[in-house]
Amino acid sequence: MQRPGAADDALSDEGIAAILLAQVAARGAGRSICPSEVARALTPDWRPLMDRVRQVARGLARDGRVLITQRGVVRDPDAVLRGPWRLAQPPEGGRSGST
Known about the structure:
The protein is an alpha+beta fold.
C-alpha cells in the first residue's frame, strides 16, 4: 500500500530528480535515457510532466550530476535545445568539464 502523499512526493522536483538520477545510474556509463522515460515512470499521464522533467534535468546538468546530449554531443544546460535530447552520467570523478 502506498503511503499518503507518496505520489505527490514523486512529482516534486526532488522526486523527479531522484527518479532521473536512478534511471541514469541504472542505464550505466556511456549510455543515456530519454527524459520521457523519467516522466513515464512517474505517472500514466506523463506528457504534461515533460517540461518539469526537462527543467529538473537542466538543474542537475548545471550541478554536474548529469549530461544533456543531442546526437551524442554534450550540450550546455542553458542553451536553447530544439529537438530530442538525452541524459547521461557525467564522466567519473565529478562535474562535467572539470579538470
